[in-house]
Amino acid sequence: MTKTTAQTDTQKPMDxxxxxxxxxxxxxxxxxxxxxxxxxxxxxxxxxxxxRDELEKGFPELSQLDxxxxxxxxxxxxxxxxxxxxLSPGVPPSIEPLTVTRQRNIPIISEIELAxxxxxxxxxxxxxxxxxxxxxxxxxxxxxxxxxxxFVGGNIGNPLINLVEQAEGIDTAVVELSxxxxxxxxxxxxxxxxxxxITEDHLDRYPTFDAYVEAKSRLFMNQxxxxxxxLNASDPYVTRAAQTSRAxxxxxxxxxxxxxxxxxxxxxxxxxESHGEERYDPKRGTLLGAHNIENMMAAILTARSxxxxxxxxxxxxxxxxxxxxxxEFVCDVDGVRYFNDSKGTNVGAVIRSLEAxxxxxxxxxxxxxxxxxYGPLRAPLRERAKHLxxxxxxxxxxxxxxxxxxxxxxxxxxxxxxxxxxxxxRPGDTVLLSPACSSYDMFRDYVERxxxxxxxxxxxxxxxxxxxxxx
Length: 471
Known about the structure:
The protein is an alpha/beta fold. The chain has helices at residues 28-39, 52-58, 75-79, 98-103, 111-116, 132-145, 161-164, 179-182, 209-217, 236-241, 290-305, 310-319, 347-354, 378-384, 395-402, 414-424, 446-460; strands at residues 20-24, 43-48, 68-71, 84-87, 108-110, 123-127, 150-154, 172-176, 192-195, 228-232, 248-254, 261-264, 269-273, 276-280, 328-333, 336-340, 361-366, 385-391, 407-410, 430-433. It is built from 17 helices and 20 strands. It starts with 19 loop residues before the first strand and ends in an 11-residue tail after the last helix.
């Protein structure tokens, strides 16, 4: 495997002192960026759809920052006078106020781009439509087990910019990256770039699926021959995206093996290198499904590129407990197993989750429509689901596109959906919440949706508490 190398660039970081910098979007990432900029002497402005009082209720730290906050409807006035614009991940680069910014040739960059200007340690970047959080955490845990001092963050919740001022003693950064974060990079260069898969998602933001693929492809655009790309050989969109990479490429795959890389032979994961093979047994751990085998293979290849021992890898694969809201086992009620997969916010994720179960599944899906095609769910539903329960804004459309694949019920709340699932499931069945949609029509985020589901299910197991179930 190629050794990871420190990220370097002949261009020096920008001196921010005295610059007027606009941060667009003041949630967790935007607040972290604003704090960093003020410490570097910039004059910071913030733009958001909420006013300052509303923002400070959710993010009290904002009250301690000396920045001017403007509502987004003052776009031309504010966006046109900045020397630099930092775009938070949740804000599309297509918003109208950025037109004047581009007309005046004002740089528009992402938080990860800004952070990369000040970091010299190797960056391992993990991207993909599904599985990137699990893989990021696996890689981080393996590196820690091997004795490395590791920062784990990015889209996973801890912005990369937080590392810049606390980098002392950290030797590697492992970051999860979304397509949103990659849209406005310029020089960001990961020493190792991992691309797990690309399936339809976020078509409420991207005009076409090709545009979404192009955003993911930006992961590789600054890699050099001294870097490494870790790729899913069975995903044609991944291999297409990686054509732009100049880095050395290694592949993982289920079923098909090759002269080097990682593959799954139906029983064990085989790591094949020029000097021999190693084998890892995924059944010794708790991660379910073929998609998690892919995540494990990607983590093994990435950890090996950083010279982690096979002992470190095995220990983490066997002890890693999985993540909340990602095929999370909730409990058994009357012989029926309930799983919370609230993070399954696109069709590809739901298909992978369904494939993790051999017995009949009662699937609860629906939420805020993201604009994708639900058609690919028809065959997995026909094969694996005994009943489909739909909720939220997307429920009616999903019923039109999926009706006939299995029996369907439309429910007006998650509580009603759980109660219906309890009534139709029989011992040996699985009830799975895997929505294929975002949560914003009914919940604050997928975490609140998943926690609500778990509370409802646990009350099924304690009938005396059912009347207190969350609506």
